[in-house]
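seq as requested:
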Amino acid sequence: MSDRSDFWKKINKFRTCMVTSEDGDKLHSRPMAPHIDEDAGKIRFLTEAGSPKTREIREDHDVNLAFADEGSMLFISVAGRASISKDRAVIKELWNSYADAWFDGDAETANVEVITVVPEEAQFWDRSGSTLVQLYELAKSKLTDSKPNMGDNRKLAL
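struct tokens:
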């Protein structure tokens, strides 16, 4: 991942990510469907209004988004700041068949809010390549008493 556009391109492939927020001294994670807006530099989610996660975000705006694809061995962790809104124009923009199935009502009437995350930093692990290459690296590390090369691990300030 050499630059910001590559970051946005990679996360745009994901249909689900784990969203983690904090409730006092406990962390809570839940799978959610991200709406990626590279032009605005934001990641948005629709959620039931008044849910525990919206209360947690209103109290502490720091969140983490975890994207994982074991098939391609791509893992991305995004630290960012979240906000909550009831902006119907944004809700209409994000509304899709998934939202229609998940929430009662429609884009005009559903009791939903928008979580908007502005990413501040991303850390990723990218081990493109076949499972055989990964197994080879693990076996080689045992034979040579070295660490396996499991791909790139970098941070990106956003």
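The mean pLDDT is 88.
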